[in-house]
Amino acid sequence: MSLETVDFSQLQLKPGQRLLDLGCGEGRHSISAWLREELEVVGLDLGLTDIKTARSRLADFPNLDNRSGYCAFVAGSGLSLPFADATFDHVICSEVLEHIHDYQPVLGEIARVVKPGGSVTVSVPRYFPEWVCWQLSDAYHEVEGGHIRIFKARDLSDAIQARGMQPTARHWAHALHVPYWWLKCLFWGREPEHFLVRQYHRLLVWDLMQKPWLTRTLDRFFNPILGKSIVMYFRRPGSTP
User: Fold this and answer.
1) Which tens digits make up the pLDDT trace of 164-203?
2) Are the C-beta atoms of residues 125 and 98 closer than 8 Å to each other?
3) Do the Cβ atoms of 89 and 115 come closer than 8 Å?
4) Residue partners of 119: CB distance under 8 A and separation at least 6
5) If you ran DSSP here, which 8-state letter would residue 183 be given?
6) Which of 117, 134, 138 is nearest to 126 (CA)?
7) What is the dihedral of CA 60, 25, 212, 6, to 10 degrees?
8) How many alpha carbons lie under 13 Å from residue 149 in its C-beta half-sphere?
9) Over the stretch 154-169, which tens digit does the pLDDT of each residue have?
10) pLDDT at 1 over 60
11) What ranges do the domains of the chain cover?
12) Cis peptide bond upstream of 192, omega within 30
């Protein structure tokens, strides 16, 4: 079980379609998408350790040989995707762009590889919760591979639309994670980890595994107010021949 930021119902997945999970990390969205529909999924990431973990996680699921399509993980850079133009029906780029110094070429590559009529889904940390983290701890965003910018949603949406994409929906996600990261930043670097941080982490793991109605309801209620991530959905005009 993994924490999904993307609402797959927005993508209208169909068997046989191709999906790229750009910056897939340990494969949470790649694996979830393939388990929902028999797609041709490629998860791409720069981190070889994450790719190895993603492959291991995929292997934990039984009866994979009985499914059509595939879910493959490869190493590569979003600055120069190793795919032909108009290859994918769907491209997901979740919690990636905030790590990249020159993200505009990545948006160009996403627009290049998505098919006419295909979908593009992008998520980044929401401005206010992220800003508070930066105020509480310099180390939070100065660690190697950390966040190097705070996006304003309108600016990022405009940049994606400038690549020819049309917005279709947006929402916020993971409101219950915001207090955890604020506590984490407030007590950053303490060993052992502060009691409040450990206890809140236990709450989040319990919520992920059990999905109780109370925390799920609270998360949905607070997402528009304090969701940690903003998730934006776009579609490339046209139709696949």
Assistant:
1) 999 999 999 999 999 999 999 999 988 889 999 999 999 9
2) yes
3) yes
4) 10, 11, 12, 89, 90, 91, 168, 233, 234, 235, 236
5) H
6) 134
7) -120
8) 15
9) 999 999 999 999 999 9
10) no
11) 8-126+147-175+228-235
12) yes
Could you tell me how many residues make up the chain? 241
221, 216, 79, 229: which is closest to 156 by C-alpha?
A: 229
3-state secondary structure 51-104: HHHHHHHHHCCCCHHHCCCEEEEEECCCCCCCCCCCCEEEEEEECCHHHCCCCH
Q: Which fold has domain 8-126+147-175+228-235?
A: Rossmann fold (3.40.50)
Region label for 18, one of left (φ > 0), alpha (ψ between -120 and 50) or beta (otherwise) = beta
Token pair in block for residue 201: 């982490």
Q: Structure tokens of 111?
A: 């627009």
